[in-house]
Specification:
The structure holds 2 protein chains of 2 kinds. Chain A is extended. Chain A has 8 helices and 11 strands. By secondary structure, chain A is an alpha+beta fold. In chain A, a hairpin with a 2-residue loop joins strand 6 and strand 7 (214-222). A 4-stranded mixed β-sheet of chain A has the order 6-7-11-10. In chain A, strands 1-5-4 form a 3-stranded mixed β-sheet. The longest helix of chain A has 17 residues, at 41-57. Chain B is mainly alpha-helical. In chain B, strands 1-2 form a two-stranded antiparallel ribbon. Chain B starts with 10 loop residues before the first strand and ends in a 6-residue tail after the last helix. Classes of the chains: A alpha+beta, B mainly alpha. At the A-B interface, helix 2, helix 5 and strand 1 of A face helix 3, helix 4 and helix 5 of B.
Chain lengths: 311, 118
């Protein structure tokens, strides 16, 4: 499917990590979309180079690729926004020096009209070209992590007073773009309307952190729960569940709740909730202190193997 | 189409902007604002264009290893390029709406006779 990442970066199969980084940097400088604002194809080339670099600079992934276990396509990367996507917007006037920029289009981003399109329209074909598709319009939407994980419905208020109902699919990730067909600018002479492109920003959550399809959670447990084990209630993105903490669980122990992470979406299976236990001593208990003083317990040096003398 | 930046979602505060972009420290961003590489209105109201610009600067520095002294040169050139493109876009818009077919034809010929400007 995708091209050979070695060929894409122009390096040998035996290339060192440093050689790969250097080859990537050289190509990325040439093809970065923000350094090629007029070249629509630059984005595709840059994406391919970045994907190749990502694959080959990860020792583990590279080894798996070399063994033929994974193909070069890997994961579909979320669509991202480049600076050039905003450079025609009202805000960019602040960066354009005197006399630069364009009259404010109201909402950020404005109409997604490319110079090449206009010139192509003007100079490529003759004018009045019959029905033309409306322009795409870009908006941005910030949502919480739980809405991103579980999916949600949001309404964007447009500068002209209209509204846009956005259904956020479960599992969407930060930086991805939603396309609402036909909700952009109106078409000309009977042409179809353009699309609304909504770039989604996900705000961090105080408890949960997302890593791909998995959700990470640090779960405080009491000394009693850690020593004796027992059922504790764990918040998950889809509601609380009970978790059995095994007797003698160590601080920092990771436990996996299968299928309790990001729900299945777009052909990807549901991720897991990965719980890291955090031992909390709580208020001092004189009886416990008394017990520990009277019972030295089995010989245990948690600092054994750190090297040097334990003090 | 009125009311300059009305309705644009903004992120308020340097710390929040850093969180939004990722991989940029507050100290770093403060320096960039002092150098006027990033110009959030009021010094701390970051619009999408400002966040995208922070991301771009971070990528140029940290991934492509372009040094600050070179960025001093690259960023103004990039801004000039965008300003000129905006101007050209306005020109093309006026021409498309008003210019006679004859002129359009002449422009088309002139541009196609001169591939890649040389």
């Amino acid at each position: 499917m995708a091209e050979d990442p070695y060929k894409l970066l122009g390096v040998e199969k035996t290339a060192t990590e440093a050689q790969i980084r250097a080859a990537y940097r050289k190509l990325a400088k040439k093809h970065h979309p923000d350094l090629n604002p007029g070249d629509k194809a630059a984005e595709e080339r840059f994406k391919a180079i970045s994907a190749a670099n990502e694959l080959l600079s990860d020792t583990d992934k590279r080894a798996r690729f070399d063994r033929g276990e994974i193909d070069a396509a890997g994961q579909e990367r979320p669509e991202r926004q480049y600076y050039r996507d905003y450079a025609g917007s009202a805000g960019a006037r602040d960066y354009a020096g005197a006399g630069g920029g364009r009259p404010p289009p109201g909402w950020q981003g404005g109409e997604d009209v490319d110079l090449g399109d206009i010139l192509g329209e003007m100079f490529g074909q003759r004018r009045p070209a019959g029905p033309r598709r409306g322009a795409d319009r870009r908006y941005s939407l910030a949502i919480g992590l739980l809405d991103a994980v579980n999916g949600a419905r949001q309404t964007i208020t447009l500068p002209d007073g209209g509204t846009l109902e956005v259904v956020i699919p479960a599992g969407i990730d930060d930086g991805q773009t939603l396309r609402l067909r036909g909700r952009g600018g109106p078409g000309a002479e009977g042409g179809p309307a353009g699309d609304a492109l909504i770039s989604v920003q996900v705000y961090p959550h105080p408890l949960f952190r997302r890593e791909g399809g998995d959700i990470l959670l640090e779960l405080p447990v009491s000394l009693r729960e850690a020593v004796l084990g027992g059922k504790v209630t764990v918040p998950t993105p889809s509601g609380a569940v009970a978790l059995s903490v095994p007797a003698g669980a160590e601080n920092g122990r990771r436990m996996r709740l299968r299928g309790r992470g990001v729900p299945a979406h777009g052909g990807k299976p549901a991720g897991d909730l990965i719980v890291t236990l955090k031992l909390m001593l709580g208020p001092a208990d004189p009886a416990l202190a008394e017990f520990l003083r009277a019972n030295p317990g089995p010989a245990f040096d948690p600092r054994a193997g750190l090297g040097g003398e334990a003090t | 189409m009125s009311g300059a930046d009305a309705g644009v979602p903004v992120v308020i505060g340097i710390a929040a902007a850093c969180r939004c972009v990722g991989g940029v420290s507050a100290e770093m961003l403060t320096v960039w604002i002092e150098r006027r590489w990033v110009c959030p209105p009021g010094g701390e109201r970051f619009r999408p264009v400002d966040l995208a610009r922070i991301r771009l600067i971070a990528e140029l520095r940290d991934e492509l290893l372009i040094e600050d002294s070179a960025l001093e040169l690259v960023l103004p050139l990039l801004d000039q390029l965008h300003a000129e493109r905006a101007r050209l876009r306005r020109l093309a818009g006026v021409l498309a709406a008003r210019a006679p077919d004859e002129l359009i034809e002449a422009l088309r010929a002139a541009l196609t006779d001169d591939p890649a400007g040389g």
